[in-house]
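Example 3.
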Amino acid sequence: MTNANLFEYLLRLADDRLVLGHRNSEWCGHGPILEEDIATANIALDLLGQAQLLLKLAGETEGQGRDEDALAYWRDESQFRNLQLVELPKGDFAFTVARQFLFSAWNQGFLEALTQSKHEDLAGIAGKALKENRYHLRHSAEWLIRFGDGTDESHRRAQTALDELWPWTGEFSSEDQVDRALLAEGIAPALTPLRPPFEAMVRDITARATLTVPDRPMRMTGGRTGRHTEYLGHMLAEMQIVARSHPGAVW
Amino acid sequence: MSDQWPLWEVFTQPPGGKPHEHAGSVHAPDAEIALQNARDVYTRRGEAVSIWVVPSATIVASAPTDAGPFFDPGNDKPYRHPQFYKVPRGVKVF
């Protein structure tokens, strides 16, 4: 039973990173400027690396012989456990930056807490990811400040992105029986206490960016149980087509 | 507004206490972003332990026409080079 919960939990963490990494990678060759193209690809590669470690551990936990590639390429939409926020199309660059900021701001507190996990491998992955996350947070926060406090157009785009994204962040801190079971075993951190520091960080950065956090109700959740937006299926089709067309191919 | 951000020169320090070396240049709107861009473009594979960024416009450079007066005089005065001295015994030569 423990293993079933842990497998589920590892998929959630891995899929957040796999899907967001893929969305960020869509900027590769299309970035607004060469340096930012490289920076976004770097963040995508960091997230992909985290996803790889987590999926590998998930496969070992499951014990059915599935490795990280099997889990990444041979699961369908309803078997993905990522937050809905990360599967939304990349939008304009302000949207990509604002989403990365919200994700990294949440993960700063979350990963710090996860390094205290009693599961040694998971705590180790959290420690590695935390280092990378610090940079993702710094990079995306600095850009959000510049967009918000920049030109009329950059301010408008950043505020529009924040208005659209904020209601999706409710899913960050919503807990279910998987979280609670692993919390009881000391493997996973409690999510609810992480919410106030996350919101404080978002309000601090948005205030410096002259942006406002919208007063909008949170959306329905469902990503953690495989209910996704219309966008994930299309993204997975693109992400998985090569692996599925040439099973077992290596290069 | 010009369509290109200002250019910054990037200097990275390799591990092991060696001096900073010129790595290349990046475009950036300000110092913090220049530092981040330098990190992303030049140090992603453990090449550096420290980065300097300097606005390219603040670097004063010699011109190609300075080459003669600046550098030629050293070429024909071998006595300027210290290779005529014998290294005393007991001094370790690296």
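Chain A is about 65% helix and 0% strand. The interface with chain B takes residues 33-36, 38-39, 42, 135, 138-139, 142-143, 146 of chain A (CB under 8 Å).
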